[in-house]
Amino acid sequence: MVEMVLLDITQAFGSPIQLASSWRWNNTDCQQGNVVVAVNLSRQSLTGLIPLSFSNLRDLKNLNLSGNNLRDSIPKSLKTLLRLESLDLSYNNLSGEVSIFPPKLKLNITISLEDSRCISNGDMY
Predict the structure, then answer these.
(1) Nearest-CA neighbor of 33 among 9, 12, 2, 56?
(2) CA 41, CA 117: separation in Å to the nearest integer?
(3) Average pLDDT over residues 13-39
(4) Which range is least confidently modeled, 45-54, 57-66, 85-94, 97-106?
(5) Sheet strands side by side (includes 47-48)
(6) Residue 112: CB partners within 8 Å, gap ≥ 6?
(7) Could you tell me which residues come within 8 angstroms of residue 104 by beta carbon, excluding any fewer than 6 positions away?
(8) Gyration radius of the chain over CA positions
(9) What is the DSSP letter of 79?
(10) N or C: less crowded end of the chain, CB within 10 Å?
(11) What letter does residue 115 receive in the DSSP assignment?
(12) Of the given ranges (26-30, 41-45, 66-70, 105-109), which has the lowest mean pLDDT?
């Protein structure tokens, strides 16, 4: 299952060579076999949208997609990641609202507003 999710994510980013060349990704942290708890894809020259497949990594605690050229909005499906503690989307070209996460989550969200057009309505913390 986890392998299929990682493959979906790689395909959603257009199968960039830096991801496809390391099937088990050097930039993932797994616990107890196939449980992915962290993904760090910062500064990988990724373009396009944030893949919806990230929401299938139910045990994900840390997701770093900073320093890429991701566009559009943060997928609402990410709010289903109830173990997520850190989400770094800084230095991308994102837009839209960021207050999509349940207030009960103790989530540290990093978004660079200089490079994105994100709007917070204040209730995400």
Answers:
(1) 2
(2) 21
(3) 66
(4) 97-106
(5) 47-48, 69-72, 93-97, 117-119
(6) 66, 90, 91, 92
(7) none
(8) 14
(9) G
(10) N
(11) T
(12) 26-30
Location of structure tokens 């390391």:
22
Average pLDDT for 35-56:
91
Whether the predicted pLDDT of 115 surpasses 70:
no
Q: Which CATH number does 2-119 carry? A: 3.80.10.10
Tell me the mean pLDDT in the region 55-61: 93
The domain spans of the chain are 2-119
Report the length, in residues, of the chain: 125
Residue carrying structure tokens 């949208």: 49
Per-residue pLDDT at 124: 38
Question: Between residues 50 and 22, which one has the greater pLDDT?
Answer: 50
Residue 40 backbone dihedrals phi, psi, to 5 degrees: -120, 100
Tokens encoding 91? 């230095």
Mean pLDDT over 93-98 rounds to: 79
83 alpha-carbon distance from chain centroid: 13
Cα–Cα distance for residue pair 8/52, rounded to 1 Å:
9
CA angle 96-45-119, nearest 5°? 15
